[in-house]
């Protein structure tokens, strides 16, 4: 496989789409319906996948959901194996994606700085 191969990117996108469908079906937990898969990174050898998710409710309750996903990773991997045409389905590792929260905080800081700047110019 070439170093610049885009196969890991294609597999990552496929896993992301399939997990979004499978997680609410396979996991009998309401919290699975309250999550969004934001990004999947697959290693170049296609043996490991890092799955990033966010919660609709924000960061509150992220730790129990992370534990639930980590505990169910093998079950989700088997479910993926039944849906994907891959010789080996990557091992799944779940991570809470804090980039959305950081982006929101940054946008708030920018908005506040702009409004303070506008208020300072009016004086």
From TrEMBL:
GO cellular component term of the entry, any: cytosol
Keywords, sorted A to Z: Cytoplasm, Ribosome biogenesis
Domain of life: Bacteria
GO molecular function: ribosomal small subunit binding
Record's keyword annotation contains Nucleotide-binding: no
Main location: cytoplasm
Gene3D superfamilies named in the record: 3.30.300.20
Localization per record: Cytoplasm
InterPro entries named in the record: KH_dom-like_a/b, RbfA, RbfA_dom_sf, Ribosome-bd_factorA_CS
GO biological process: maturation of SSU-rRNA
Protein role: One of several proteins that assist in the late maturation steps of the functional core of the 30S ribosomal subunit. Associates with free 30S ribosomal subunits (but not with 30S subunits that are part of 70S ribosomes or polysomes). Required for efficient processing of 16S rRNA. May interact with the 5'-terminal helix region of 16S rRNA.
Quaternary structure and interacting proteins, as annotated: Monomer. Binds 30S ribosomal subunits, but not 50S ribosomal subunits or 70S ribosomes.
NCBIfam families in UniProt: rbfA
UniProt xrefs under HAMAP family: RbfA
Family in the record: Belongs to the RbfA family.
Protein name as annotated: Ribosome-binding factor A
Originating species: Candidatus Muproteobacteria bacterium RBG_16_60_9
Gene: rbfA
